[in-house]
Design brief:
Radius of gyration: 17 Å
Strand content: 25-35%
Bound molecules: zinc ion
Largest sheet: 7 strands, mixed
Order of helices and strands: EEEHEHHEHEEEEEHEHEHEE
Number of strands: 14
C-alpha cells in the first residue's frame, strides 16, 4: 500500500498547497481521502483526476470538502467533451443530510453513506470507520489491504477508543493541529504530544503528522510527538510517498 500526502494544513491552505488530504493506493486502485481547499489543484501533481477511483470524506467542514464541487465540475466537463468517466463514488457519513446530498451530482458522482461498525469494500481496500471527538460528527478511517493497515484519525481530540481503532496500524496518519500551549483552547484537535501518545498506545509502527497549523514552527509539534512515540515520527510531506 502507498500513501501520498496531497496537503498537510488544517483549516485553510498556505500558498501553493492544500488542506490535509491523502492518496491511498493499492493494486492500481486509488482513493482520495478528504478533498478540502487546494486539493484539486495539488492532487494533479501526483495523479490525473481520471486516476482517482473513489473518494472518502471524513466530515463536512470546508477544509475537508471544499473542492468536492470542483471535482464534480471536472467530471461534468469530461462528460460534455465526450470523455464520460465512470460515476465516482464518494463515501461519507450521512448525519449531515445537506452535506451528504451534495456528494451526489448529476450523473458524475454518487454519495455512499458509511457508518462505524460496518466494513466497506472499496476497490482492494477493506475500510472501517470510527466516530471521533470533534465539534461536528466526523469519522476516522482504517484502510486495510495486502496485510497492511493505514489509519487516518481525521479531526479529533485525543480519546482512548481511537487507540483501539488504530491498534497495530502499520501507518498512523494523525492530526496534530495544536502547539502544546494551545491544548484545550481549540476544541476537537490534538497537540503533537497527544498524537505521539496515541501512536504509542495503538502500538503503531509509523506516525505521520498532518492537519498542521500555519503559524509557528511545525518542527516543534514533531518534537512533541517524538517525545511520546520516538523516531518513527514524521511530518507529512506533500508528494512524499510512504510505502507500507
Ligand atoms: Zn479540519
Amino acid at each position: 500500500m502507498k500513501v501520498i500526502p496531497v496537503g498537510i494544513w488544517g483549516g485553510y491552505p498556505k500558498a501553493e498547497s492544500a488542506t490535509s488530504s491523502f492518496l491511498i493506493e493499492h493494486d492500481g486502485f486509488t482513493v482520495l481521502f478528504d478533498c478540502g481547499s487546494g486539493v484539486l489543484s495539488q492532487v494533479q501533481r501526483y495523479k490525473t483526476l481520471e486516476e482517482i477511483d473513489a473518494v472518502v470524506v471524513s466530515h463536512y467542514h470546508a477544509d475537508h470538502v471544499a473542492d468536492i464541487g470542483s471535482l464534480q465540475y471536472h467530471h461534468l466537463i469530461a462528460s460534455y467533451t465526450g470523455n464520460r468517466l465512470p460515476k465516482l463514488p464518494i463515501y461519507a457519513h450521512d448525519r449531515d443530510a445537506e452535506g451528504f446530498a451534495g456528494l451526489s451530482y448529476k450523473e458524475v458522482t454518487e454519495g455512499r453513506a458509511v457508518r462505524p461498525g460496518e466494513v466497506y469494500e472499496i476497490g482492494p481496500f477493506s475500510v472501517t470507520f470510527a466516530e471521533t471527538v470533534h465539534p461536528v460528527y466526523c469519522l476516522a478511517a482504517r484502510f486495510e489491504a495486502g496485510g497492511k493497515a493505514a489509519v487516518f484519525t481525521a479531526d479529533t481530540e485525543f480519546f482512548e477508543g481511537l487507540a483501539e481503532f488504530a491498534a497495530g496500524a502499520d501507518l498512523l496518519v494523525s492530526e496534530a493541529n495544536l502547539y502544546e500551549e494551545d491544548k484545550g483552547r481549540a476544541p476537537g484537535h490534538m497537540a503533537g504530544s497527544e498524537a505521539g501518545g496515541l501512536a504509542r498506545l495503538a502500538d503503531a509502527k509509523r506516525l505521520l503528522l498532518t492537519h498542521l497549523p500555519q503559524a509557528g514552527d511545525v518542527q516543534v509539534i514533531k518534537g512533541a510527538a517524538m517525545e511520546a512515540f520516538g523516531d518513527s515520527t514524521e511530518l507529512a510531506e506533500p508528494g512524499g510517498v510512504v510505502e507500507i
